[in-house]
Amino acid sequence: MDADFRGRDIISIRDFNRGEIEFILDKALEMRQGHAPLLAGRILGLLFFEPSTRTRLSFEVAMKRLGGDVVGFSDSQLTSITKGESLSDTIKTVEAYTDIIVIRHSREGAARLAAEASKKPVINAGDGPNQHPTQTLLDLFTIRKEFGRLDVKVTLMGDLKYGRTVHSLAYALAMFDAEIDLVSPPGLEMPEEVITDLKAMGAEVSVSNRLDISKAQVLYVTRIQKERFPDPEEYAKVRGAYKLTLDSLKDARSDLIILHPLPRVQEIASEIDATKHAKYFDQVANGVPVRMAVLALVTGAIE
Ligand code: CP
């Protein structure tokens, strides 16, 4: 494949075409099979303005597995932002110390702004409710590993209004001709403009407030994004609106896989973890090779 990833920012999954995504997934598979210290001497800046467990740690592990090192913060209260420094100046500073920048921020568009301020590659690790492209890559990696293809029947269930992982993933699934069922509690539906985009991309999309598990090959569950609700009373109305239990699985296909970007709160009962359907901790593990591939590609360490 003739794609040049060197120096590229990764802000939205829509920055890639289907061939480029497949290429990254192939490179991630190679990373799982072994790798040289391709990024020895390079430094990754991890700027987390919002909490994270998986994304931050898996980027850190990915960089270290490739022989590189990391600097950064997971609490911006301890940085000069609290003295009034702008995001743009913060990025220009980190750019001077590092080779790649990973940023998570509560504000939609913050990663794009960071990319505009930096000559070094910037990777969006989640910008508000907007996008989380490397999560999507590891979601696709997991689906492809299980089914050998991506044109499968996927149900996205949960907070489709504020969940950035489902916004990113829906666009990618549409690129790969997946059938997409959108299931959410009333008030947390997928934004209309996203549905319009998906249909314009040729995707088969259905919308419901009730889960029909019998259709799904992939059930992708998300938590309700409490932190994004402008009004706590609105959150109280939907809290605990859905929960997957063993009983919910009685009409499931035998090949159903259940994914979740995590963290989960209460939307998947822990009794499901021991079933053959639960693949969310495989997803967690897949974050490392996928992010290794991304880091190696944007630095030009692999082509
Ligand atoms: N999936 C995900 O983004 O998890 P973290 O918030 O723990 O990084």
Description:
With 303 residues, the chain is of the alpha/beta class. It has nine helices and nine strands. It folds into two domains: 13-132 and 287-298, Aspartate/ornithine carbamoyltransferase (Rossmann fold), CATH 3.40.50; 133-284, Rossmann fold (3-Layer(aba) Sandwich). Helix 1 crosses helix 9 (280-298). The strands form two sheets. It has a five-stranded parallel β-sheet. The chain has a four-stranded parallel β-sheet with strand order 2-1-3-4, sandwiched between helices. It has helices spanning 18-33, 54-65, 87-97, 110-117, 133-147, 164-175, 192-200, 232-238, 280-298; strands at 43-48, 69-73, 100-105, 122-127, 153-157, 179-183, 204-208, 218-221, 257-259. The protein binds phosphoric acid mono(formamide)ester. The site of phosphoric acid mono(formamide)ester has 9 residues, from helix 2.
Please give a handful of descriptors for the protein shown.
303 residues, alpha/beta, Rossmann fold, 2 domains, five-stranded parallel sheet, four-stranded parallel sheet, 9 helices, globular, binds phosphoric acid mono(formamide)ester
